[in-house]
C-alpha cells in the first residue's frame, strides 16, 4: 500500500540512518505537503474570487458600454431633429415678421389713400352743399322782383369751389342762357331752379356723400381686418417663439447629456480594457492547468496518507 514517490529516497537513507531520522524526514515531508495543500487552497480561493469579480466587472462594463452607445446614438438623433425644428421655427417667425411688415406698409398706404379720399370728398361735399345753398338763394331772388340789393354786412367767407361753381352757374344763367329762356326782370325767370345745374349739383352732393360713407366703411373694415391679422400674427409668433425657446432648452440639455455620455463611455471602455487585461493576467495561474485543482488535492492527499502509513509502520 506504500506507493509514495518519496519512499525510494527514504529507503536509501534508511539503510544508513536510524529509524528516528527516517521518521523525522517523513514528518517533514508531511508538513511540507500540508503547507502546499494550504497554499493551493488559498490560491484556489484567490482565483475563484478574482475570476468571479473580474467576470462581473467585464460583464457589467460591457453592458454599460452598450447602453451608453445606444444613449449617444439617441442623443445625437434627438439633437439633429431639434436643430431642424428650431431652424424651421426660425424660418416661420421670419416669415411672420415679413408678413407683418408688408401688411403694415400696405395698411399705412391704404389708410393714407382712404383718408385723402375722404378729406377730398368732404371738401367737395361742403363746396357743393354751399354752392347749392347759393344757387337756391339765387333762384329764389331771380323768381321775385328785385328792388335794391340789401347791403352786405361784413365780408362773407365762401368756399373757393363754391365761388367757382357760382361763376359757372351765373355765366350759364345770364350770359349763356338757353334759347327761349325768359328774362330775370319782373321776377319771371325760374328756368334753372328745380332741374338742370341745381339738380346736377344735388346729384354730385349725393355722390360725394356716398363716397364718404363707402370709403369710411371700407377704411373701418380694412382697419378691423388689419387689427385681427396683427393679433393673430402676434399670437402665432408668441407660440412659435415659446416653442423655439423650449426646443433650444431641450437641445442644450441633450447636448449636455451627450457630452456626459461620451465621457462615461470613455471611462467605461478604459475600465473594461483594464478588466480584460487583468483577466488575461489571471488566466495562466487560474485557468491554464495541466492538472486540475481537484486532481492535485487527491494526489497530495494520497501522498500524505502513504507517508502517514509508512510512519506508522516505522513506529
The N- and C-terminal alpha carbons lie at a distance of: 16 Å
Q: H/E series, N to C?
A: HHHHH
Helix vs. strand class: mainly alpha
Rg calc: 60 Å
- Into how many domains do the coordinates divide? 1
What is the strand content?
Answer: under 5%
> What does the overall shape look like?
rod-shaped
By DSSP, the count of extended strands is 0
* Low-confidence regions: 151-156, 172-193
Average per-residue pLDDT, rounded, comes to: 79
Main sheet makeup: none
Question: Could you estimate the helical fraction of the residues in percent?
Answer: over 70%
Count of helical regions: 5
Description:
By secondary structure, this protein is mostly helical. It has one domain (7-145, 154-314). It has five helices and no strands. It has helices at 7-16, 19-142, 160-175, 197-286, 293-314. Helix 2 (19-142) runs parallel beside helix 3 (160-175) and helix 2 runs antiparallel to helix 4. The longest helix is centred in the N-terminal third of the chain and has 124 residues, at 19-142. Mean pLDDT is 79; it is low at 151-156 and 172-193.
Write a brief caption for the model.
With 315 residues, the protein is mainly α. The protein contains five helices and no strands.
Give the key terms.
315 residues, 0% strand, mainly alpha
Amino acid at each position: 500500500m506504500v506507493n509514495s514517490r518519496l519512499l525510494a529516497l527514504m529507503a536509501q537513507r534508511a539503510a544508513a540512518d536510524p529509524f528516528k531520522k527516517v521518521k523525522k524526514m517523513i514528518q517533514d515531508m508531511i508538513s511540507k505537503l500540508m503547507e502546499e495543500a494550504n497554499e493551493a487552497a488559498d490560491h484556489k480561493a484567490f482565483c475563484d474570487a478574482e475570476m468571479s469579480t473580474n467576470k462581473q466587472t467585464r460583464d457589467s462594463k460591457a453592458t454599460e458600454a452598450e447602453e451608453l452607445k445606444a444613449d449617444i446614438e439617441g442623443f445625437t438623433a434627438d439633437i439633429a431633429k431639434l436643430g431642424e425644428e428650431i431652424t424651421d421655427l426660425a424660418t416661420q417667425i421670419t416669415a411672420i415678421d415679413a408678413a407683418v411688415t408688408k401688411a403694415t406698409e400696405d395698411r399705412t398706404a391704404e389708410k393714407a389713400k382712404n383718408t385723402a379720399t375722404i378729406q377730398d370728398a368732404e371738401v367737395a361735399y361742403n363746396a357743393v352743399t354751399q354752392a347749392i345753398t347759393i344757387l337756391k338763394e339765387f333762384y329764389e331772388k331771380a323768381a321775385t322782383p328785385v328792388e335794391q340789393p340789401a347791403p352786405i354786412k361784413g365780408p362773407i367767407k365762401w368756399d373757393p369751389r363754391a365761388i367757382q361753381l357760382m361763376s359757372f352757374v351765373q355765366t350759364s344763367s345770364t350770359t349763356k342762357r338757353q334759347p327761349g329762356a325768359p328774362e330775370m326782370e319782373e321776377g319771371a325767370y325760374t328756368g334753372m331752379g328745380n332741374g338742370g345745374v341745381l339738380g346736377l349739383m344735388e346729384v354730385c352732393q349725393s355722390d360725394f356723400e356716398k363716397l364718404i360713407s363707402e370709403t369710411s366703411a371700407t377704411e373701418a373694415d380694412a382697419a378691423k381686418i388689419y387689427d385681427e391679422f396683427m393679433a393673430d400674427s402676434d399670437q402665432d409668433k408668441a407660440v412659435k417663439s415659446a416653442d423655439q425657446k423650449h426646443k433650444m432648452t431641450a437641445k442644450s440639455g441633450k447636448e449636455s447629456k451627450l457630452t456626459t455620455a461620451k465621457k462615461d463611455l470613455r471611462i467605461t471602455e478604459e475600465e473594461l480594457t483594464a478588466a480584460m487585461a487583468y483577466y488575461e493576467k489571471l488566466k495562466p495561474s487560474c485557468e491554464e492547468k495541466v492538472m486540475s485543482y481537484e486532481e492535485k488535492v487527491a494526489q497530495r492527499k494520497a501522498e500524505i496518507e502513504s507517508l502517514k502509513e509508512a510512519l506508522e509502520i516505522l513506529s
